[in-house]
Amino acid sequence: MPKRSGWPTPSKNRSTVLMFGVRRWKVGFEMKRLTLGIAIGTLVVLALLLVLRTPLGNGWHRFGLIPLSDLEKFELLQRALASTENLETESADRDWEVLYQHLPMDASVALNRALNRTLHLEQAIETAEVALAGGAPLDASAADRTRAVATARQAIEQYQALSHDPVTAAWLASRVDLLEAATLAETEAARAIREQVLERLAQQIDSMSDEPQGIRILAGPWLQAWEEIEASDVETTAAFQERSATTLSELSDRAPDNLYLALRAAKLGVAARSFQSDAPVVRTRELARAIEPTLRPLTEAIGLTPDELAQSIVDAIEERNWALASSQLNLWFNLLNGTDQVKTDRRRIQPHPLDRLSFVTLRELSAKLVKERPAAIGKAPLKFEHWAGGKVPDMVTAATIDIDLDLQPEVISVTSAGRLELWQAAANDPTEWRSVAQLDVGMPATGLLVADLFMVDASDPRRLQILARGEDDAHASASRHSTIPSLLVYGPEGIRLVAVDGRAGVPPEERLSLPDGETGLENVDQVITAAAGDLEGDGDLDLIISTRNHGLRLFINRGNRTFFELESIGPDDPASPLRNVSAIAIVDVDRDLDLDLMVVDGESGRVGWVENLLHLQFRVRELPELPAVRGANRIRVGDFDGNVSWDLLYGGPARVGLVHTQTPEAGRWEIETADEIEHGGTDFLVADWDNDSWQEMLVTSPRGALWQRLLGGTASEPIACELDPVRRLLEAVDFDADGRLDLLVAVEGGWAIRRNTTDPVGHHLGARFRGIDDNHPASGRINHYAVGSVLELRFGPHYRAEVISSPTTHFGLDGFEQASTLRAIFPNGLTQTIRNPPIDSIIEEEQTLKGSCPYLYAWDGEQYSFVTDCLWAAPLGLQVAQNVVAQDRPWEYLKVDGDLVRPRGDHYELRITEELWEIAYIDHVALTAVDHPADVEVWTHEKVGPAEIAGPELHAFLDSDVLPLYAAIDPAGEDVTHLLRDVDGNHYKGFRQRLRQGLCPPHWVDLDFGPWPDGRTENRVLLVLTGWILPTDSSLNIQIDQNPDLEKIEFPSVWVPDSEAPDGWKLAIPYMGFPGGKSKTIVVDVSDVIRRDDPRLRVRTSAEIYWDAAALVVQTRRPEIVTHELKLTAAELVYRGFSEKHRRSETSPEWYDYSQVSREPRWPPLGGKFSIFGDCLPLVRQWDDRMVVMGPGDELRLTFRTPLAAPPTGWKRDFVLHCVGWDKDADLNTLAGQSSEPLPFRSMRSYPPPPDQAEQLRRVEGLNAEQLRRRQSFRHFWSR
Fold first, then answer.
1. Which burial class, exposed, middle or buried, applies to 270 when counting CB atoms under 10 A from its CB (0-12, 13-18, 19+)?
2. How far apart, in Å, are the Cα atoms of 1157 and each of 65, 431, 867, 1225?
3. Which residues partner with 419 through β-bridges?
4. Cβ distance 750 to 392 under 8 Å?
5. Rounded Cα distance, 1240 and 1257, in Å
6. 155 touches 343 (CB < 8 A)
7. What's the rounded Cα separation, in Å, for the pair 782 and 1264?
8. CA 972 from centroid of its chain's CA atoms
């Protein structure tokens, strides 16, 4: 193994040298060792290739090249990568050719060049298909395609000669072959190519001994070739079917963790009547246990459990009942095929060429440029001096905690006997620390965790807060964290939760306490380590606990610091290499917006990925391609090379593993390189110690301390560090507020602070984000300290990212005097950007609001004005409780006030925009003009609720039929008539507090409309209410469902006076409906329930509804109205962006300024396919399951012809917009919320569609296949 030169310690004694060796692990296939003769022969061949080849790009020749500097190569490489990622393949090829000429021995460049040419071939074929559909002759672009095939094959061969990577080369070559076959239509030549691909790949897979990564990637083109042969008109033989089934079964055996492969092997095996097809069926059941909560409700619909359905297939195979096996397997296949787990596993064996782009050379050039720069920052040796400490005999660990939220951290220590001690600096001397509280937790301890374990909910009296601050607090901020975190102490006998109270005036004996009551953690013991993170996206922190007796255990927080355990998420097998997890990092590693776990086992040294599959479903994947580091006790996740992909550093005494990755799309996290570094020390800690913007690994040992910079993805040579001996490095924290990270360390006999005195250092920025309390009017339901959020900082040409794991997240800025942007991506998908954040300071920021549903704008004669939101009655996948989905009603009739719609020439123009993190499906739109006398009010019967209480009915009544509000009384007996008499934007809020966003204690308003009009006892009576609602979402509904202290939402009901009832009122209409989203008017028919002798009404709810006006209509006659069905003349889908939002008051809904728009992406990309931009009139003319699928930033532009005649004098024109469609929030707990798939349809009974409607779903997918060809760009949002 190659060794790097030794690191000199601060001592002059050369015998105290720590040796750092680096071994590189080749990821994906076995590294071949070449003899000297083969190596020389290869070099000769390469030299001949360089001399003889003809350049394919812009005419460069090998000889006479103008030399490029490293900076020029770096910039050219960045441009080439960006062009390829943006599918600008022609311009990218020119750049790759230049790079290939200048770096002829670089396998990374050669690979990217081959990938780009493969992508160019795909584009050429797609262009030809589009032209053919438009009537162009088939051979119009044949020469271009032939040339693209040849250049792609040549680039692949040249890459293979350089890299000795037969797997990637075979994958690319097979992809090119299948693309060529696609150009030959259904000919014998095309079939021959596909059969050759099958045979060649089968032989190569057979020759691979133990390379699951390579087997997975080659399985993709093999399956594609087989599917294309099966789809052809030529019938396959039984022998072909049997041989294919055998190969696919072997592929599944060789990649046993891939559910997609197992599912396809089972289906093909049963189709071929293979007696061995029971094995892949059993494998599908075992792999699908991770998604048991999703499957169980679906199989219950057919009267079986998942186990029983899978077993029925196995039994039918054993009995040779192939008809039954096939029918039952079809059910099982339809159940699994649409799950995210199958889709993810399919992507793993069928990667896109962009997934395989190599960033190795980019990292190497970046590191080289950093080393060559002349700046002094980053050159100075690290220096730490003793600053303070505390004596704690038998201390096992310590941590920082800010008990009074003044930005000055305190220290909490714990001994092996379980004695906690809280330490605080003296007010007049920060180097003098004293013990201010102690507590014996009653058990031995090995570790502790600091975390806020309450829901973002200020209403819980046990949640200790500091809300008011003195005027002399110079650091006070409205965005300051206000909740004091709790402690979790753990050890072999279990776990203790400890409440911390740092408020002024609290006596020392009450500052640390054990809460009363059960926590749900009483049966936990043998704890190794623990971590906290919001793994279900409901706004509170859950606990992940590693134990020696039961492996990983996950405890779900009810939001009140009590927990219930999820079924085992980790291996419970004592022989598992991930049985004894010693360190846990919480991060959305694959950037699909759910938090995963990266873990390392201290005994086996193996690394694992606990992949979050949403809806409390997880699967554990060991990563065998990474080096095992026995004794590992730390794992650190960071973007060490700035390529927008999370890298890993893990290890312990003596060695660490350094892993670099790439993330080509959401849900794909690819390991690119893995280095094993021997540091010879006893402990390490990673941070940016000198603010040069790069992470440095600080290593300690009894012989001294050294550090190593992680430069753009490579590790620098070791450098000596001035640091007194320590037992263990605990935390990197800025204790003295000078912008440099100091050290909290364990020393003999206690703890100490080592102050960072490194000089010079770069500029810095500290970021503190606060999740908003649910009682805040703009709550967004993020845990209070925003743990798990991603912070991205851009300054100059640089990109740095960190995951929030502590109250303050630190960034170094090197010598840059200004940062461009600081962007936060919260765990619920909300993003927030601060432009030009101040440097050398701490930024305190509060999260902003997340909204819901598409917006409607209309041309009002001068501009496009905001009208309201729409599709409120048709939420898809909205869970109202765990596995209980709200019913959707896909049609609605919205009144649009005529003052907001004016002709533009001979037409009216409406805009429907999707500006939130959601997907809109619009199947049909129609507009009706309603002309009526000016003294007549017109309203629709629309409201949120089932069809029985809403519908196409149009209400029209005279102004003289309206009884104005006489009195309105709130639950406290106060008169609120002035708030409800007119529609004026002054809203009545009947609640004093919120329990969660959208959920309040029950409240009401009593409405009195005065004496009953004479002679109208038989008339129709309508209650007319105007208001808006701030709703819950799936995550909040799940959280409410989990918390036994919270009642379900009570939606609005109508009550009437009753002298015999205890409170004088009785229920008359249990569910009256409510206004959906922004301000709307609803009409409730109360004719059959209102008492004519006491015509008072009570409207009661626990939903968060703000009422603007109330009136009662006692209808004398139906006035005359005239309707005009308007012709839809144009519908166009475009990308527009996001309007600027405003809010008039805390009780008013938001409104949006159409004239102020940002085109920058605001939300993380969603999966699936979306409608292509352009004309979409045929898609929305009628309700026919052909629909426009809109993502964030999209706009549907609608044009309707005006009626020939204007309204008569004294009349007014209003409008009714009829929409048919659905809306799907991308909330992490919305079923299928992260993708546009599956599509909804008219006959759908529930969403996602049940397995027995799979045929209808395929029909709808076929109807929309031609226009659903757009995907959201991953790199447009996650950009460097």
1. buried
2. 47, 52, 17, 22
3. 440
4. yes
5. 8
6. no
7. 37
8. 43
The answer for residues whose C-beta is within 8 angstroms of residue 1111's C-beta and 6 or more apart is: 962, 963, 964, 965, 1009, 1023, 1024
Q: How far apart are CA 1009 and CA 981, in angstroms?
A: 11
The overall longest dimension of the chain from CA atoms, in Å, is 111
Q: Hey, what long-range contacts does 491-494 have (CB within 8 A, 24 or more apart)?
A: 491/418, 491/443, 491/444, 491/445, 491/446, 491/447, 491/527, 492/444, 492/446, 492/525, 492/526, 492/527, 493/443, 493/444, 493/525, 494/443, 494/521, 494/522, 494/524, 494/525, 494/527
Write out the two tokens for 651: 């290890």
In this prediction, residue 845 has a pLDDT band, given cuts at 50, 70 and 90, of low
The pTM of the full predicted model, rounded to 2 decimals, is: 0.85
What is the C-alpha to C-alpha distance for residues 1056 and 944, in angstroms, rounded to an integer? 22
Alpha-carbon radius of gyration of the chain: 33
Q: Is the dihedral of CA 141, 142, 146, 152 positive or negative?
A: positive
**Distance from chain centroid for Cα 469:** 36
CA atoms of 335 and 343, how far apart (whole Å): 12
C-alpha–C-alpha distance, residues 1180 and 448, integer Å: 58
Report the candidate in 519, 508, 535, 459 with the shortest Cα–Cα distance to residue 486. 519
Amino acid present at 804: I
Q: In 3D, which of 1227, 1226, 1240, 1230 has the Cα closest to residue 1272?
A: 1226
Please give the single-letter amino acid code of residue 956.
A
**Mean pLDDT of the chain, nearest integer:** 87
DSSP 804-830: --SSSEEEEEET-S---EEEEE-TTS-
Q: How many Cβ atoms sit within 10 Å of the Cβ of residue 622? A: 18
* Angstrom distance (rounded) from CA 394 to CA 446: 11
DSSP 1207: P
pLDDT per position as a tens digit, 974-1029: 999 999 999 999 999 999 888 888 999 999 999 999 999 887 878 899 999 999 99
Please list, in sequence order, all residues whose beta carbon lies within 8 angstroms of the beta carbon of residue 303, skipping any fewer than 6 positions away: none
For residue 872, the 8-state DSSP code is: T
Q: Where are the alpha helices (DSSP H) in 1054-1213?
A: 1177-1180
Q: Please state the φ and ψ torsions of residue 928, each to the nearest 5 degrees.
A: -120, 130
Phi, psi of 180 (to 5 degrees): -65, -40
Q: Quick one: tokens of 608?
A: 């694992």
> What stretches of 615-667 adopt beta strand conformation (E)?
618-622, 634-638, 647-651, 655-665
> In the numeric block, which tokens belong to residue 902?
């004016």
Give me the count of residues in the chain.
Answer: 1280
Whole-number Å distance between alpha carbons of 451 and 261: 41
Span 836-840, average pLDDT:
90
- Beta strands 841-846; 763-770: pairing state: parallel
Measure the CA–CA gap between 627 and 610, rounded to whole angstroms: 18
The strand ranges marked E within 189-271 are none
Q: Is the dihedral of CA 506, 507, 511, 513 positive or negative?
A: negative
